[in-house]
Design goal:
This protein has about 300 residues and is α/β, with parallel strands linked by helices. The protein is built from nine helices and twelve strands. The radius of gyration is 21 Å and the shape is elongated. The chain binds NADP nicotinamide-adenine-dinucleotide phosphate (NAP). InterPro entries: D-isomer_DH_CS, D-isomer_DH_NAD-bd, NAD(P)-bd_dom_sf.
Amino acid sequence: MTTNVLFAANGALWNDYREPLRTALSDAGIDAHLATDISAPEVDYIVYSPGSDVQDFTPFTRCKAVLNLWAGVENITGNDTLTMPLARMVDDGLTRGMVEWVTGHVLRHHLGLDAHILHQDGEWRHDPPPLATDRPVTILGLGALGRACGEALAQLGFPVTGWSRGPKDVPGLTCLHGGDGLSAALERAGILVLLLPHTHETANLMNDARLASLPRGSVILNPGRGALIDDDALLAALDAGHLGHATLDTFRTEPLPPEHPFWAHPQVTVTPHIASETRPASAARVIAENVRRGEAGEPLLHLVDRDRGY
Ligand code: NAP
């Protein structure tokens, strides 16, 4: 029997995903009809992204699951018409991209690369950086992305502390959780990496008090979500000299408006939400595996807990 898979992600993605999805569904043994225009009551699975035209899921009466192409789901978890299971994206390509972005930006700040790349002015700045072992890194969020980034940084020698909602045991990392855990994780953060989802609990987590609890001169990297940081508190902490730098990939409003003070601030680096992308070839295999599981009556992978919001 044919399984109808509606590609309802942002239209521009269809060219990138059509062939990888067809191949992956076929390889998973699914007799699939994959299209962008299947009548709603006939749809078995929806491949989704936040920019989709589909905002009302009510007509999709036999749909077994919505399969999100993005890791972040904050734009869809509040949709009351979405009553079927929602799976988010955990993709090896996405994870590896994030590890590369985080490692690169941690090393930029750790090694003080700007001093040599941006200032070739004849001054002999003999100021060697410490070893990684002397630069504690804290990662807020120990999920698919935070854990992989923590493991990569620990491999390079950084003492890595990770913080999550529930207790974790990740070899090579100091794992903390809960309110006391957060205080301890922030107090030691020479470099702080935010890899939390945006939920009602994590919004504005980095407020003025928590920014003040970071060691003087510390650096923040935010490839998580813009709403994790109070923008005004961040600018105040940078202007006061308490923080050394902020490298931001995600923002409350994207694209970041040209007049936003982050663009012109000398201690802020803006990257345009490019830390990591879902990669069509590997992501298609994740989608196909979930369709296979759904058809076989097996539990789906990477299900979102709608109450927790991630
Ligand atoms: P994930 O696997 O769902 O992990 C989320 C982590 O955050 C988990 O460790 C979770 O704790 C922790 N967490 C959530 N709420 C918390 C709370 N209230 N207190 C403490 N810890 C909390 O997510 P992921 O795949 O790693 O992705 C993380 C985020 O990265 C995404 O949500 C998205 O916003 C962002 N992202 C950005 C880009 C980019 O290009 N910039 C690309 C992809 C993703 P538990 O483990 O205890 O549940």
